[in-house]
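Researcher: Re-running this chain for the archive, since the previous output was lost when a drive failed. Same request as before.
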Amino acid sequence: MPAPDAAPEQPTPEDAPGRAPADTGDPSPPDVRPLIGRDEPLRVLARAVEATTRGVPGFVEILGEPGIGKTRLLGELETSARARGLAVLSGRAAEFQHEVPLAVVVDALDDHLRTHATRLRGKLPGPVLDRLAAIFPALEATARAVPGVDPVAADRYRGFSAVRDLLDVLAAPSGLLVVLDDVHWADEASVELVDHLLRHPPCGRVLIAMAYRTAQVPPRLAAALQHAGTSRTSGPGTGRGPVRLHRIAVRPFDAREVEEFLTVLAPGVSGDRTATAEAGVVGVFGGGDVQGPLPCPARSRRLHAASRGNPFYLEALVRGGPGTGGSDPDPDPDPDSDPDPEHSGPPAVPSPVRMALAAELDALPADALLVARAAAVVGDDFDPGQVAVAARISRVRTLDALDELAARDVVRAAAGTGRFGFRHPLVRHVAYSCAPAGWRIEAHAATAAHLAGMGAPATARAYHLARSAAFGDRAAAAVLAEAARSVADRAPATAAHWLRAALRLLLEDVPETVGLLTDLARAQSVSGRLQAGRDTALRVLELLPQDDLAARAPLVRLVTMMERLLGRTTRSRAVVLAELERAGGRFVAAQLPLWLRLAAENMLRGEHTEASRVLDSVLADPASAAAPGLIAAVAAMRPMAAYAQGRYATATRQSRRAAALVDATADVDLVPWLDSFAWLCWAELIADRGPVAAPHFQRALDLARATGQSYIETTLLAGQAWNLGRLGRPEAGLAAAEEGVEISRFLGCRQPLVLGLSAQSMLTGWIGEPARALRKAEEAVAAAGHDGEWAGTFAHAVYAVALLDAGRVDPGTAEAAIICGTEDETVLDPCSRLMCCEAAARAEALRGRPRAARCWADRAARLAAGTEPGAAAAGVGT
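Model: Regenerated structure tokens:
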């Protein structure tokens, strides 16, 4: 019988062209069995479809452990959507192909686009089609020849916007359901696209449904889904409102539902004693304990204990027969680890279940088992010709074996495509992991060679070469490097995986090594692997000549940023100073990026005059004029340094000039300098220019997300949160702050974590939750430590405000004066003191002491006007 988590409607082999019908031995189609214990999820799905037909776009989120029935619920959703007139497109992420960018989205849409490409030409503008053609192979013929920058790699978030526009077109006139299954295996680019669509949902009747395993969901997707449905929109005038999210957490069966499930399952495998034994029912139910189709209650209880209520595990035990644990299930089975340590397989699959699936496969005829293993090498969804290559047998033998596999419901034919797929990813996992390791290498190698002969792109071949190329194969390393570089800007984690694979093939002293390691350092850092990126960059610096300043500069800049994000603030400054000494402290064109880094380090340490001197010198250097992005970066940093010195008129003038310059700079030129762009955003925030800062924060965030620069995203989210609160949207600000805190924790970034927690404290205080605000402030102070830099002093200011608002200190005491930095001006920067003085005035007013409140308010006014001694804004950045 089919697995309950498998797609509910799969054709049998007679749908494959030119093949004789196969006798499956089971007259019941896979979707005839009733759903057990899923009444509430079905009601949620019905509401989602109804809302979509009324023009409300939405998302359906189905989560649960492997085999719990997520795919079956997606099938029910598809049936319901079709009944209401919606078009349905579906795709699935694959376990062993999660490096392929946007694979699950392409899988869902590409075949449909292939037959509707002509229609799209009249519905979408040329630039949008160009961006879509860079994503979907079916639209490659529609792309215009545009020289220069790849629209997806360099302008990635616009590519995501193009996909959103495409969904709106495909939804006309009756609506569209897009189903994305197994999203826990999706590549990073697909996750980022989903994140984008959650924040900027389509306008039309579009329903996007996703299913994923709870324990394996990518952190970014988890954060995006958690904060979906808030008041965020895609911008003024777009007409796009908050996304409607329908969430279904699929629970395991209880004991009664297991009995009901087995009652439903038994008629499909009952009959004469021989047929029942072959289906495994005798082994599970104890032969004579079976009365007609009904299971023995005692066996049912033991099966419930062994399966833990998981429908797929339960059925696997029934199908496995004697020797798989079915006759005496272990109520506490041992977990079995994934045999391929490079990839995330099913977590903690119970031994009886793995044994059951392995036994099912071992019972196959020799050719069928061989083809099952070869198909597992090729993918969840596979073409018979590719499988024949991997198995190294004829196409005829492969098709015969596929008929056998389909008859046993190991694989299923996809109607009208000539392709097949496993009934469930766990079946593929076991088929792959149980194949001999050496045989797998040869199968991947044969597939890679076949793809090369067909002229397949490097990205298609890289998946197989990473698992089969031999040490010393420089040609394979070159293909892996080409594949990595082609996806580095839109899928840096995939690029890092392929670059590591290429490096494993080479000796360290070959010429290619330095270039590969340099690319790897960037990919690791950008994708959030900060420590790994730093270590790789240091390794490259050891290999580079000491006088090759141009090659060393970007790596030193990378190391400096990683050291700072990892909380090693003293080390970050020392690294950049040591490298600048190689040129004797002179301005050298090759080292201009390092001088910008030094200016950032100076501002973060409160050395604003020195930061201004460095920035002015860089701007005066003739070499900077050749780099538009560099000029914009310098301009973006100057206002904060001027504010910090109390030169407010100069800072305002510089801020306006920087905003105009940044707005006129192309995204592709800004991307390498996003850390500098962040300074302008924060300067506008601190200068109380919230409406101007808002679009700059959003643009910087879009670029950071589109290029995978999560470590910059964290700092920007903290600033955006504060700005949203000032603009009267504290709930939206809290959502941004929480997202930043989650990403900071995941990446191990201390300074952005401190800023995010501080923003959470401020915002919760503003919405009237002083106790929660105090807890968040205490967390921020604890995370900050005592490095004396701005993030830490800001956290102490927020803590002071939280104490005052919670009534924990009297504003008139010496303790409060010290906390607020008024007794010792070195404790807090003036911007933070201003916030504390305002809180003290508020606290005194609430205590009924108007004269004291007026004193604090006057001091706050002097700080705001810049007339208080030492008054200045502070700096923050990466």
